[in-house]
Amino acid sequence: MIEWNEKYMVGIDNIDRQHELLVDKINHLLEMHEKSEDLHVISTLFIGLIHYFTKHFEYEETIMRGCNYPGLERRKLEHKIFYNNLEKTKNDFINGEISSLGYIIDYIKLWVMDHIIIQDKKYANKSLLKVNT
Ligand SMILES: [Fe+2]
Protein backbone atom coordinates (compact mmCIF):
# COMPACT_ATOMS: atom_id res chain seq x y z
CA MET A 1 0.00 0.00 0.00
CA ILE A 2 1.07 3.56 -0.60
CA GLU A 3 0.19 5.77 2.32
CA TRP A 4 -0.71 9.25 1.16
CA ASN A 5 1.03 12.01 3.07
CA GLU A 6 2.11 15.58 2.63
CA LYS A 7 5.54 14.75 1.26
CA TYR A 8 3.70 13.94 -1.98
CA MET A 9 2.12 17.38 -2.22
CA VAL A 10 3.47 19.52 -5.07
CA GLY A 11 1.49 22.66 -4.18
CA ILE A 12 -0.91 22.77 -7.15
CA ASP A 13 -4.34 21.81 -5.80
CA ASN A 14 -5.68 19.99 -8.87
CA ILE A 15 -2.48 18.01 -9.26
CA ASP A 16 -2.40 17.08 -5.59
CA ARG A 17 -6.01 15.88 -5.79
CA GLN A 18 -5.28 13.85 -8.91
CA HIS A 19 -2.21 12.26 -7.32
CA GLU A 20 -4.18 11.37 -4.22
CA LEU A 21 -6.85 9.74 -6.35
CA LEU A 22 -4.19 7.88 -8.33
CA VAL A 23 -2.75 6.51 -5.09
CA ASP A 24 -6.27 5.45 -4.00
CA LYS A 25 -6.79 3.63 -7.28
CA ILE A 26 -3.42 1.89 -7.07
CA ASN A 27 -4.14 0.80 -3.50
CA HIS A 28 -7.57 -0.47 -4.49
CA LEU A 29 -6.14 -2.50 -7.35
CA LEU A 30 -3.46 -3.91 -5.05
CA GLU A 31 -6.02 -4.81 -2.40
CA MET A 32 -8.29 -6.61 -4.84
CA HIS A 33 -5.34 -8.33 -6.45
CA GLU A 34 -4.16 -9.62 -3.06
CA LYS A 35 -7.65 -10.89 -2.34
CA SER A 36 -7.53 -12.72 -5.67
CA GLU A 37 -10.73 -11.17 -6.90
CA ASP A 38 -11.90 -12.48 -10.26
CA LEU A 39 -10.25 -11.56 -13.52
CA HIS A 40 -13.08 -9.27 -14.55
CA VAL A 41 -12.90 -7.18 -11.37
CA ILE A 42 -9.11 -6.82 -11.54
CA SER A 43 -9.15 -6.03 -15.27
CA THR A 44 -11.82 -3.35 -14.77
CA LEU A 45 -9.82 -1.70 -11.99
CA PHE A 46 -6.63 -1.87 -14.04
CA ILE A 47 -8.31 -0.37 -17.11
CA GLY A 48 -9.75 2.41 -14.92
CA LEU A 49 -6.33 3.13 -13.47
CA ILE A 50 -4.70 3.32 -16.90
CA HIS A 51 -7.46 5.65 -18.07
CA TYR A 52 -6.95 7.93 -15.10
CA PHE A 53 -3.18 7.98 -15.64
CA THR A 54 -3.79 9.05 -19.24
CA LYS A 55 -6.02 11.93 -18.18
CA HIS A 56 -3.56 12.98 -15.50
CA PHE A 57 -0.65 12.98 -17.95
CA GLU A 58 -2.60 15.10 -20.44
CA TYR A 59 -3.47 17.55 -17.69
CA GLU A 60 0.06 17.98 -16.45
CA GLU A 61 1.52 18.19 -19.95
CA THR A 62 -0.81 21.16 -20.47
CA ILE A 63 0.54 22.81 -17.33
CA MET A 64 4.12 22.12 -18.40
CA ARG A 65 3.40 23.65 -21.81
CA GLY A 66 1.85 26.67 -20.08
CA CYS A 67 5.00 27.43 -18.11
CA ASN A 68 7.44 26.51 -20.91
CA TYR A 69 8.83 23.70 -18.85
CA PRO A 70 12.10 22.65 -20.53
CA GLY A 71 11.66 18.98 -19.63
CA LEU A 72 8.31 18.64 -21.41
CA GLU A 73 9.43 16.42 -24.30
CA ARG A 74 11.31 14.12 -21.98
CA ARG A 75 8.33 13.86 -19.65
CA LYS A 76 6.00 13.11 -22.56
CA LEU A 77 8.28 10.28 -23.59
CA GLU A 78 8.38 8.90 -20.03
CA HIS A 79 4.58 9.05 -19.86
CA LYS A 80 4.30 7.22 -23.17
CA ILE A 81 6.72 4.45 -22.17
CA PHE A 82 4.94 3.98 -18.84
CA TYR A 83 1.55 3.91 -20.55
CA ASN A 84 2.75 1.37 -23.13
CA ASN A 85 4.07 -0.91 -20.38
CA LEU A 86 0.73 -0.77 -18.58
CA GLU A 87 -1.27 -1.36 -21.74
CA LYS A 88 0.84 -4.34 -22.76
CA THR A 89 0.61 -5.90 -19.31
CA LYS A 90 -3.14 -5.28 -19.19
CA ASN A 91 -3.62 -7.02 -22.55
CA ASP A 92 -1.37 -9.94 -21.53
CA PHE A 93 -3.37 -10.32 -18.31
CA ILE A 94 -6.73 -10.23 -20.07
CA ASN A 95 -5.50 -12.71 -22.69
CA GLY A 96 -4.28 -15.08 -19.99
CA GLU A 97 -0.63 -14.78 -20.95
CA ILE A 98 0.27 -13.71 -17.41
CA SER A 99 -1.60 -14.71 -14.29
CA SER A 100 -0.39 -12.13 -11.79
CA LEU A 101 -0.14 -8.35 -11.74
CA GLY A 102 2.21 -8.36 -8.76
CA TYR A 103 5.22 -7.28 -10.78
CA ILE A 104 3.46 -4.43 -12.59
CA ILE A 105 1.86 -3.13 -9.39
CA ASP A 106 5.32 -2.92 -7.80
CA TYR A 107 6.55 -1.12 -10.91
CA ILE A 108 3.60 1.32 -10.76
CA LYS A 109 4.24 2.05 -7.09
CA LEU A 110 7.93 2.80 -7.61
CA TRP A 111 7.25 4.80 -10.76
CA VAL A 112 4.59 6.92 -9.05
CA MET A 113 6.86 7.72 -6.10
CA ASP A 114 9.53 8.98 -8.50
CA HIS A 115 6.93 10.68 -10.68
CA ILE A 116 5.41 12.70 -7.85
CA ILE A 117 8.25 13.28 -5.43
CA ILE A 118 10.97 14.10 -7.92
CA GLN A 119 9.62 14.80 -11.40
CA ASP A 120 6.35 16.62 -10.71
CA LYS A 121 7.87 18.91 -8.10
CA LYS A 122 10.19 20.28 -10.79
CA TYR A 123 7.46 21.49 -13.13
CA ALA A 124 5.20 22.46 -10.20
CA ASN A 125 7.88 24.78 -8.83
CA LYS A 126 8.32 26.37 -12.23
CA SER A 127 4.57 26.74 -12.71
CA LEU A 128 4.03 28.24 -9.26
CA LEU A 129 6.92 30.62 -9.82
CA LYS A 130 5.19 31.86 -12.97
CA VAL A 131 1.87 32.36 -11.14
CA ASN A 132 3.53 34.24 -8.31
CA THR A 133 5.61 36.64 -10.40
FE1 LIG B 1 1.78 13.70 -11.84
List the helices and strands and how they pair.
Layout: H1 13-34, H2 39-66, H3 72-94, H4 102-132
Helix pairs in contact: 1-2, 1-4, 2-3
How would you describe what is shown here?
With 133 residues, this protein is an all-alpha fold. The chain has a single domain, classed as Hemerythrin-like (Four Helix Bundle (Hemerythrin (Met), subunit A)), CATH 1.20.120.50. Helices cover 78% and strands 0% of the residues. It is built from four helices and no strands. Helix 1 packs antiparallel against helix 4 and helix 2 packs antiparallel against helix 3. It is elongated. The mean pLDDT is 93. The structure holds fe (ii) ion.
Descriptive key words:
133 residues; mainly alpha; Four Helix Bundle (Hemerythrin (Met), subunit A); binds fe (ii) ion
